[in-house]
Design a protein that fits this description.
There is one protein chain. The chain is elongated. A hairpin with a 2-residue loop joins strand 1 and strand 2. It has four domains: about 100 residues, Arc Repressor Mutant, subunit A; about 70 residues, Helicase, Ruva Protein, domain 3; about 60 residues, no CATH class; about 170 residues, no CATH class. With about 425 residues, it is α+β, with helices and mostly antiparallel strands. The chain is about 55% helix and about 5% strand. Helix 7 packs parallel to helix 9, helix 8 crosses helix 9 and helix 15 packs antiparallel against helix 19.
Length: about 425
């Protein structure tokens, strides 16, 4: 049985709607508006929920795959133009949706950009009921949402930049933080009964000048304390390293030369020992060198002092290298980039939480990134991993930080020893030495 809307029915788009939400978003929202009279409705206090099945949407939008409809619907939800219920459309092919409060038809209710005034955030800003409802749909506990408020308000107060909708920005931050929290929480484990630090941790402590007898004394106290505390951790070796180093730095041992904590500087470079440690961990030095601007910028922003900048950089490089390798393992077959490619949720969470790159800045790089790689007609196993490298480089360029010589030597004939500012973006993106 055919749907009353014929496949040839034209979709009349509002230019204002397309300029406000995006062209694809305007197409989907207009199509849903045309379908409303033909869809089953569930009435709830203050809102009607509609359900469209895959057959209806594919007949009206035959140029999209289910994954495209899910992607565009998610974008509409993130912009506050649509509320979504039920499972993701890409897997269920059921789109259950509601219009925001006060909307009659989507093509007539979105105001033009000029009609919305931008303001700076107020000191006592709170998310409105609509924003909280959209966050609740993501399954985020309210107490977690409230914990993010002080940091969010402080950040935008310090920036002093006007925005049309702080609610949409807050939703993005909460979603990103919640995804990162859940990913970390799933990896946390209590201290195993037979746990002992691995050889790498013991070697690092030895390199710091901590005597093995001191480490062994600290081990028993560490195990006894954490077995009774009930604490869980992603890495008990890192916990133990920090535990021992904190105790060691408190020791009154003037006969042992200790490194004094220093502030991060723009021209900081890892020592030869640090590069050797990275090579022992099988981390490509070219890959690690690309991380330097981002690492320096992050610690310049945070401030603080440390006597272990090299160790912090090693840990940072390990996490980034693990993410890169994981992306390759998940995608064993190299493929060209799709015309409508978008970075995945894990990719954006990694950029925001691990790399501390502004989400809007990262997303602004996507069109040029797609255009470049479609022009190259190249195939890659993980476009997310390639995009992370590109975003890191662009973020570093924006903040005008140079990596410096990878090994502390001026060998301009070796590409591995070139500074990032001496290499073109094309060279970096096409570098497949790892």
């Amino acid at each position: 049985m055919k749907h009353p809307l014929l496949p040839e029915r034209p979709l009349s788009l509002s230019p204002t709607l397309a300029a406000t939400l995006g062209l694809e978003e305007a197409v989907l929202l207009t199509a849903l508006g045309d379908l409303l009279p033909f869809l089953p409705v569930e009435s709830h206090p203050g809102r009607n929920w509609y359900t469209a099945d895959g057959g209806q949407l594919q007949q009206l939008l035959p140029f999209w795959q289910p994954a495209d409809i899910q992607r565009v619907a998610t974008s509409l939800r993130n912009q506050g133009a649509l509320l979504l219920g039920a499972a993701p459309y890409g897997s269920s092919e059921i789109l259950k949706f509601a219009l925001p409060l006060g909307s009659a038809r989507p093509d007539t209710q979105v105001p033009p950009p000029a009609a919305r005034s931008a303001n700076t955030i107020a000191p006592g800003w709170q998310p409105d009921a609509e924003t909280m409802a959209r966050i609740a749909q993501l399954g985020v506990p309210e107490h977690f949402v409230r914990e993010q408020l002080p940091e969010f308000v402080t950040y935008w107060r310090e920036r002093g930049e006007p925005r049309h909708s702080f609610g949409a920005l807050f939703l993005k931050q909460v979603k990103s933080k919640w995804e990162a929290f859940r990913a970390t929480a799933q990896r946390k484990l209590p201290l195993p009964q037979d746990w002992r630090p691995n050889e790498e941790t013991l070697r690092k402590l030895s390199d710091e000048g901590v005597p093995s007898t001191f480490v062994q004394r600290g081990l028993q106290r560490f195990v006894d304390y954490h077995r009774s505390s009930g604490k869980q951790s992603v890495s008990w070796d890192l916990e133990f390293n920090d535990w021992v180093m904190e105790d060691w730095e408190k020791q009154d041992a003037p006969f042992i030369e200790k490194r004094k904590p220093t502030a991060m500087t723009r021209d900081w470079q890892p020592s030869e020992h640090t590069w050797e440690q990275l090579r022992r961990l099988a981390i490509n030095p070219n890959f690690a060198a690309e991380l330097l601007p981002e690492f320096i910028y992050k610690w310049l922003e945070r401030g603080g002092h440390s006597a272990r900048w090299g160790e912090l950089f090693i840990e940072y490089a390990r996490e980034e290298w693990a993410y890169y390798c994981q992306g390759i393992e998940k995608n064993p077959v190299a493929k060209p980039i799709a015309r409508n490619w978008q970075p995945g949720g894990d990719c954006l969470s990694h950029l925001v939480n691990q790399c501390e790159i502004d989400r809007d800045f990262a997303l602004s790089l996507v069109p040029e990134f797609i255009l470049y790689w479609r022009g190259q007609n190249a195939a890659r196993k993980s476009w997310d991993a390639v995009f992370v490298r590109h975003a890191r480089h662009q973020w570093a360029e924006r903040n005008k930080l140079a990596i410096g010589n990878s090994y502390g030597r001026q060998d301009t004939n070796n590409p591995a020893n070139q500074r990032t500012r001496d290499r073109s973006i094309a060279d970096m993106l096409n570098d497949t030495n790892w």
